[in-house]
Q: What sequence folds into this?
């Protein structure tokens, strides 16, 4: 479905006066508003190809209809999001779910929608038809060299697809681990995994990064071979300068202080990127900011502070990706909400006065420090984000325009009601 620019302009025109009033009110109390707006215009969040269809749990899946049936349609869906919000200009692919049959065509289609290719994701957590070895007892950690070789070769193949498309990073998430005490030798599992990752690392082009994603548990429930940030950091350190840790917000044990993890990884130059989502219990993959938006803000506060301390570019020096699953919402509406939540947290973090906060810290003024953080968090920054969208040619209110244009209804007409997108 195509959204013509004039429809966006028409929609914006109707609510422009109202927007201007709200924007001027916030802008009047922000010191460096132009600088912040430019940062918001530049910031892009990659959409995972597997989040465009309705997800499910192990109990069932209730399809929503009009889901993308091919990689081309996935790119079109993201193109649509990007047109509405001007901050979803990237896609994260998953092999084998998104094998590009003709990379040049796929590249051209993405370019037409202003979309670049963020990290490529490999898959050694499922057995594919015709594959020689099974991943039932792990992949890179496996006791059998044949299985490890197969997992290595697969990752190298994913890098090759990525090179063709112009991606510059590989995310490795391993389901490896054990379900019961005694099932495996944890030290040997680590060593096998490290050796396997080293072989993949050796194939990375010079300008590429490898992201090692950790996860506390699931599908293994006793041990996970890349189970936390310490283990991921260990792999990344041993692998070399092109290897980094990837933080998926849902992959921690309850109450983990994620912002502190982020601050230290950044300090050690080992933070590679994010899988944004939200959760109440574990890897719930819910809409970003739907459960704990304050935590998201605190994470962004560390990111902004840490990146500025190292002179990093907010928009391009880390991988910003969503990893979510939508069981009851329209996936595209959910993604619009997630992107908005990320932009809100980022904008609020940009409002924190770093000098004032430092002064409060140096004076042990705990009350003042809290006031500074919560002052930023409680600012309604939505008009700033809307203004950034307006300047980027997108919609003031993407979700409302999406509904007004009846996008989902149109997609169902185009693609049918009984569609199942490949993915989680
Ligand atoms: C799994 O729990 C991880 O979050 C993965 O990053 C991701 O969901 C997967 O690679 C998509 O298949
Ligand atoms: Zn993830
Ligand atoms: Zn996950
Ligand atoms: Zn998740």
A:
């Amino acid at each position: 479905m195509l959204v013509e620019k004039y429809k966006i302009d028409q929609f914006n025109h109707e609510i422009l006066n109202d927007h201007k009033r709200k924007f001027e009110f916030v802008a009047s109390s922000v010191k460096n508003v132009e600088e912040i707006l430019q940062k918001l215009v530049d910031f892009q969040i990659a959409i995972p190809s597997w989040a465009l269809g309705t997800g499910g749990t192990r109990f069932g899946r209730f399809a929503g209809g009009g889901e993308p049936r091919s990689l081309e349609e996935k790119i079109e869906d993201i193109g649509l999001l990007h047109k509405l919000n001007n901050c979803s200009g990237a896609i994260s692919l998953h092999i084998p779910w998104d094998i590009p049959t003709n990379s040049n065509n796929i590249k051209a289609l993405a370019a037409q929608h202003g979309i670049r290719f963020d990290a490529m994701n490999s898959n050694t957590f499922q057995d594919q038809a015709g594959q020689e070895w099974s991943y039932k007892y792990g992949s890179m950690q496996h006791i059998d060299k044949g299985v490890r070789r197969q997992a290595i070769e697969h990752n190298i193949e994913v890098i090759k697809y990525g090179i063709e498309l112009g991606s510059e990073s590989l995310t490795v998430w391993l389901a490896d681990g054990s379900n019961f005490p005694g099932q495996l030798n944890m030290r040997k599992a680590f060593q096998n995994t490290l050796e396997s990752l080293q072989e993949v690392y050796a194939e990375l082009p010079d300008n590429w990064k490898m992201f090692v994603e950790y996860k506390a548990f699931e599908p293994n429930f006793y041990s996970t071979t890349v189970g936390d940030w310490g283990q991921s950091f260990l792999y990344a350190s041993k692998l070399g300068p092109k290897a980094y840790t990837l933080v998926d917000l849902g992959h921690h044990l309850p109450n983990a202080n994620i912002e502190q993890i982020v601050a230290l990884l950044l300090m050690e130059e080992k933070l590679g990127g994010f899988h944004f989502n939200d959760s109440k219990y574990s890897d719930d993959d819910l809409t970003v900011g739907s459960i704990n938006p304050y935590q998201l803000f605190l994470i962004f506060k560390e990111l902004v502070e840490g990146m500025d301390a190292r002179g990093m570019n907010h928009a391009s020096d880390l991988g910003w990706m969503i990893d979510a699953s939508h069981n009851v919402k329209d996936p595209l509406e959910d993604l619009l909400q997630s992107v908005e939540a990320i932009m809100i947290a980022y904008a609020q973090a940009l409002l924190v006065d770093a000098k004032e906060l430092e002064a409060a810290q140096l004076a042990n003024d705990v009350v003042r420090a809290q006031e500074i953080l919560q002052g930023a968090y409680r600012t309604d920054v939505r008009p700033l984000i809307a203004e950034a969208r307006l300047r980027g040619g997108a919609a003031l209110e993407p979700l409302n325009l999406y509904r007004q244009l009846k996008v989902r209804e149109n997609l169902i007409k185009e693609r049918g009601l009984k569609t199942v997108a490949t993915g989680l």
About this structure: The mean pLDDT is 97. The pocket of zinc ion (ligand 2) is lined by residues 173, 213, 248, 275, 323 (CB under 6 Å). The longest helix spans residues 5-27.
